[in-house]
Amino acid sequence: MDLKLTGKVAIVTGASRGIGRAIAQTLASEGVRLSLVARSQDQLEELARSLETDCLVQAVDLRSPGAAAAVVDATMKKFGAIDVLVNNAGATKRGDFFELTDADWEDGFALKFFGAMRLSRAAWKPLIASHGCIVNIIGIGGRTGNADFTIGGSVNAALGLLTKALADRGVKDGVRINAINPGFIKTERLETRLRSFAQEQNIPLADAETQMAKATGVRRFGEPSEVASAVAFFASPASGYCHGALLDLDGGQTRTL
Question: Which of 44, 98, 100, 178 has its CA 20 to 30 A from that of 147?
Fold first, then answer.
């Protein structure tokens, strides 16, 4: 299916690995030119070499207040337009609420929430000009509270609200904003959790994925490529009537309305 994305320009944050890398690969396969953003210069350059599209590598720390504007400026300088912004960067610390420090909370919001907010603000005018869109990669932790995921859940919930608020503004300005809430996706982060689960349950690592999926209430875990396909759909004209949507991509884990 031709998603009519050839020649478009997308900023993808957290692009060096996991879901972000899969998003970059999928958009590149659709002919999208890419501004790849993450903290790892080497990983971004390796990714850019592997993609058959024009890429701009930007190794920056989006926790820095000035980073978002710099990313947008560099992207505009190279490509002259921004059609898609994919806010994917950000990991938050898990743990006992009473053991998490103020610094842990500040760090969790600094990258995932403030990074996405600042990039959306900085890219807004170029997106108006291109009639473009924003896709936020959030997570189901913002839909259902969990005692061990207080930082991540709070950040995710805030990003969900920001998505709805920007969608409200986007109706006026002609910018579409949607979000995806991934469940458990097979990334390095999940592999770390699987090792911990195997140790806790005293089972072989090979059995941990099946048992952890069962304990979570799903048949299997997701693939990064499945999230990437949803991003490509939201970025394309095929989703032209999707606006302010929050897609739970979690294998049925979220059972609430």
Answer: 178
